[in-house]
Amino acid sequence: MNSSVIVFPGSNCDRDIAVALEKLEFKNTMVWHKDITLPKSDLIVVPGGFSYGDHLRSGAIAAKSNILNEVIKSANDGCLVLGICNGFQILTETGLLKGVLLRNKNLKFLGKDIYVKTINNNNKFCNKYKQDQVLKFNIAHNEGNYFTSLDHLKELEDKNLIPFKYCDEKGNIKDENNPNGSLNNIAGIFNDKKNILGMMPHPERMVDQMISGDDGINLFKSLLN
Amino acid sequence: MKFSIKVTLKKDVLDPQGKVVRQTLQNMGMDSLKSLRQGKYFEIEVNENNETKAKDKVEDMCIKLLVNLIIEDFEISKI
Lengths: 225, 79
What we know:
The structure holds two protein chains of two kinds.
Chain A: E1 2-7, H1 14-23, E2 27-32, E3 43-46, H2 66-76, E4 80-84, H3 86-94, E5 100-102, E6 110-118, E7 134-141, E8 145-147, H4 150-158, E9 164-167, E10 186-190, E11 196-199, H5 217-224
Parallel strand pairs in A: 1-2, 1-3, 3-4, 4-11
Antiparallel strand pairs in A: 5-8, 6-7, 6-9, 9-10, 10-11
Chain B: E1 2-9, H1 16-27, E2 39-45, H2 51-66, E3 72-78
Antiparallel strand pairs in B: 1-2, 1-3
């Protein structure tokens, strides 16, 4: 499977995701934001970091970069797109994913391990997880507080477009396990066609039991499935 | 031609920064403070002498980049 990782000035998880992809034998290419063509890709990853220093709004400037025009075209043609953390923020700024990521409710930058529950495993990104499986991921963000209109929130729930919700170790989805104030404990969302996934937690940081854990591996294995 | 742009959070959107600023002012003894919302301000100069055309251009800039219409409102004024 061919993957492309988009690199912006200020990206800092681009190499982590490349390591994770290569570990699972994706043929990966790093693509600079000024490039105007994308290599042939089955998966495009918009990585985490602080593109353009989060100026104006997180992801707002990166969303207008040259390569994003190509990402938008490919996404609309059905290519798989994964936006992690800042990548999720960028995808919402392009309009590929609806909604917006506001400042964390408690105004603090959060860098810690959290738990998410697999709400929907019937899709290209999560099919190797079990329904309701609890996963340990890491978060590192200042703007992860997902917000959208009530109509869209209802659509996300009704159409099963929420793959992950924040929960406790046992899988209870409660307010106290919501690290950033996201509506309905949302940790990630799909577009209508489920070919685009945006998520705040970092699966690429959980691909090695020796370092941090390996709950992220199955996300990449799902893509290969 | 110069314009100012005031960007404010929509009324239903949480404004945690504004809340902290409000609480701090209240803690400082500013008892009369009733509410506070934080926003952004831009000053833009455009090469265009026709006011309507110039304003249209600034509005385009707001919609395409400066403002996220899901959470923010904006107001353009000529300086």
